[in-house]
Every structure is written in C-alpha cells, then in structure tokens.
C-alpha cells in the first residue's frame, strides 16, 4: 500500500469520496485513462475513497486490488424499484465484499403515502439483515421527489437514513432565496443525514460553478446545510465513523455546456477543480465542528 495515501479511522471521522461518475470525460478525455490512472489521480488528490457502482464480474478483482493498493474506501449506488430489486442488489454487493454503504435512488416517483413508507421500511430491514447500510438519496424523479413528501417520511419512519443532496430541492423549488418554510423542512431532513452529495444549484440549473473560492451566493446556503448535516450525524451516530462526503459533479447534461445545441463537450466549469474545492470546504467545516 502506498505510504502517502490516507488511512482510515475507527472513530468518527470525515471520509471524502470522489464520484466515479464525475471522472467521466474529465479534461475532455472520456476513455483514454486506464482504470489505475484514474485511481491514482483520485488518491493523489487526497480523496479517501470512491463512490461508484458494483464492478462487473470480469472487473471485480482489478477493483479490489486497486482499492487495496491505494487505500481507498468504496461505496456504490443502487436504483431499485422494489424490495425485490434491493434484495438482488444487496446480494451483488455482498459478493463483491468491499462495499461500505449503498446510496439508493428509489425509482418510484409516483409511489406515495403508506405504500412508499412501506417500501422504504422494507429496504431498511433488508439492509440491516445484509449488514450493509443503505441511505436513501434526496433526488428528483425518485421516491423522495419533493421536499414536503420526504419530510413526511422523516415524521413517519423512525429509522430512515438519508443521503443529502439539496441541489434537487433547490432547483425543483426555484430557491433563489430560501424561505423560512423551506428551511424548516430542509433542517428536518438534515436530522437524518448519513452522507452528503456535494453539488450546488442556483435554483434554475441543477449544477453550477461556484467560483474558484466558492464566491457564488448559494454556496453559503449549501455550506450551512453541510455543516448542519455533519453536526446532526455526530450527535446521533454515536462513536461510529466515518462520515461520507461525496464530491459528485456530473458530466453533461448535468454540467452546463456552451454548445447545448451540439455535441455538449464545451463545459463552462472545471469539475475537477470544483471537486477539490468542495473537498477542501468539507474538511474545513468538519475540522471546525470537531475542534
């Protein structure tokens, strides 16, 4: 194992992961970097882990070896529509063995009320029995489609744990400013924070460049929410770590391009440098909280 790579803590700590999705097409280079070159770039930049997908069987050994070599943690994303889907995915995750937690986008946006709550409870019980935590992401087009609905889940499901990505609610609600009503609901969700996806919306686009030092006015809100989520986790998770913070800036069409009408390759922002900025912000917030 490389000696300058980050080591992991058994106590409560921050773990900053890079999204494998974010690595897509970085620097206009979609496929030429090898698997190990991408691992090396992530580790060399100081990230603690990778958030990605369960590797295909033919790639599983290579992923295990590289995760071990670079000392990186690993989480994956799941997209179930039913408890049966989640059970099958958990079986795949257990076969890979080296997965710390699963981020789930539950793809049933039109399922509401008691039926939705029953599905979320079923997913929680499956995860507990499998021994792999599953966190439900706050995401458009999923079971957590809107802020009000998700706040009701928090009221009704005592063991619900969330991956917080408020960019979806900011853009869906056109939150150029954040009302008291919205803030109260967002804070309710933050009491269930188990991980954070870092992306900033301006209320019109889902993902914007926040400036080289985070000058965008919406950055202040996201920093507040990240701080609140971390604080709530520290107060409710006991002495169990680490806390995952995932830099997840998507390639086009998430990233805004200058050629929307064409090939969509001319991105207006640098996803890599923005990811490094978010990682720095997360570590600064964490350090201030635990000081």
UniProtKB/TrEMBL annotation:
<dbReference type="Pfam" id="PF01261">
    <property type="entry name" value="AP_endonuc_2"/>
</dbReference>
<dbReference type="InterPro" id="IPR013022">
    <property type="entry name" value="Xyl_isomerase-like_TIM-brl"/>
</dbReference>
<feature type="domain" description="Xylose isomerase-like TIM barrel">
    <location>
        <begin position="39"/>
        <end position="184"/>
    </location>
</feature>
<keyword id="KW-0413">Isomerase</keyword>
<dbReference type="InterPro" id="IPR036237">
    <property type="entry name" value="Xyl_isomerase-like_sf"/>
</dbReference>
<protein>
    <submittedName>
        <fullName>Sugar phosphate isomerase/epimerase family protein</fullName>
    </submittedName>
</protein>
<dbReference type="GO" id="GO:0016853">
    <property type="term" value="F:isomerase activity"/>
</dbReference>
């Amino acid at each position: 194992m490389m000696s300058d790579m980050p080591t992991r803590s058994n106590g409560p700590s921050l773990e900053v992961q890079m999204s494998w999705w974010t690595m897509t097409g970085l620097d206009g280079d979609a496929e030429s970097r090898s698997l190990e070159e991408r691992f090396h770039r992530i580790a060399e930049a100081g990230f603690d882990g990778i958030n990605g997908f369960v590797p295909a069987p033919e790639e599983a050994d290579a992923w295990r070896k590289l995760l071990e070599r670079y000392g990186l943690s690993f989480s994956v994303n799941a997209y179930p529509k039913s408890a049966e889907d989640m059970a099958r995915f958990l079986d795949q995750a257990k076969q890979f063995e080296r997965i710390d937690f699963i981020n789930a986008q539950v793809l049933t946006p039109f399922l509401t009320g008691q039926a939705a709550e029953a599905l979320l409870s079923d997913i929680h019980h499956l995860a507990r029995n499998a021994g792999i935590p599953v966190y439900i992401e706050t995401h458009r087009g999923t079971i957590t489609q809107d802020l009000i609905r998700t706040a009701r889940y928090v009221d009704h499901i005592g063991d619900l744990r969330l991956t917080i990505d408020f960019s979806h609610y900011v853009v869906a609600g056109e939150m150029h400013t954040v009302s008291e009503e919205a803030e109260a609901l967002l804070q309710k969700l933050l009491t269930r924070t188990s991980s954070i996806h870092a992306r900033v919306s301006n209320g019109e686009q889902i993902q914007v460049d926040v400036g080289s030092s985070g000058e965008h006015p919406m950055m202040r809100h996201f920093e507040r929410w990240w701080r609140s989520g971390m604080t709530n986790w520290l107060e409710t998770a006991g002495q169990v770590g680490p806390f995952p913070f995932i830099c997840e800036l998507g390639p086009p069409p998430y990233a805004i391009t200058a050629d929307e009408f064409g090939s969509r390759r001319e991105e207006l922002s640098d996803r890599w440098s923005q990811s490094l900025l978010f990682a720095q912000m997360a570590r600064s917030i964490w350090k201030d909280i635990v000081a």
